[in-house]
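Lab meeting, item 3. Inverse folding demo.
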């Protein structure tokens, strides 16, 4: 073969080899990592709860007085409120424990007594209070004292937790939520032939104390009658977490 032809063949061979070498390098660089190399994540939610007896109670009571004019309605209201507060003070309750939540004096239109007559206008004065107790066993006695000394209605009774007790239950609820999340993640990992290697991210949602609410129909308690007996069940604190776990192939 002539020397020029051999040189041409050599050039073509070098070009072909260069093309093969580039394709192999590119395929190695562009290949995605395997699942075991890249790692996996498992995201689950966990829910936990803790229960405890309430050590705080809130009683909401109201005093209502009516009259044909606003001045008289206000005076009657003030007298009843003063009598109620004095009675509660006699039980040892401080002003900080008996606080105003609502106050209003307004017109109260009544249907006319006969057809065609003008509506009867009466003034209605309202003063609502929130009574906070650290001794939940005194709720019944406080209700009886308030109703027997001027309170005309008891809106509701809530049993809940003081701040320190709530923190204790929140801690227990979060631990329970994390244990629940871990159990779920391990179940998923086993089914997917993975092994959990650690925690990647934890998101804690707001803890949710669930107070026990009771309604009480206000009725005066004559002397000698049995007083009110108001009992509560446990208060539940619920915590929710979102956890992302790192995992690798088993």
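The presenter then showed the designed sequence:
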């Amino acid at each position: 073969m002539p020397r020029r032809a051999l040189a041409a063949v050599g050039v073509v061979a070098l070009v072909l080899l260069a093309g093969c070498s580039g394709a192999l390098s590119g395929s190695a660089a562009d290949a995605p990592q395997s699942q075991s190399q890249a790692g996996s994540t498992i995201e689950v939610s966990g829910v936990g709860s803790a229960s405890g007896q309430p050590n705080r109670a809130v009683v909401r009571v109201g005093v209502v007085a009516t009259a044909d004019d606003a001045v008289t309605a206000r005076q009657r209201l003030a007298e009843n409120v003063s009598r109620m507060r004095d009675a509660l003070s006699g039980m040892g309750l401080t002003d900080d424990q008996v606080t105003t939540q609502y106050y209003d004096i307004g017109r109260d239109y009544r249907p006319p007594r006969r057809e065609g007559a003008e509506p009867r206008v009466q003034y209605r004065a309202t003063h609502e209070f929130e009574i906070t107790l650290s001794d939940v066993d005194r709720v019944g006695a406080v209700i009886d004292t308030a109703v027997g000394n001027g309170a005309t209605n008891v809106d509701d009774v809530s049993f809940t937790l003081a701040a320190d007790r709530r923190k204790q239950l929140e801690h227990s609820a979060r631990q329970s939520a994390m244990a629940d999340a871990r159990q779920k993640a391990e179940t998923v990992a086993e089914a997917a032939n993975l092994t959990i290697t650690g925690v990647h991210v934890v998101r804690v949602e707001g803890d949710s104390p669930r107070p026990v609410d009771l309604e009480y129909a206000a009725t005066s308690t004559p002397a000698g009658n049995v007083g009110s007996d108001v009992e509560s069940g446990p208060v539940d604190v619920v915590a929710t977490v979102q956890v992302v776990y790192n995992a690798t192939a088993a």
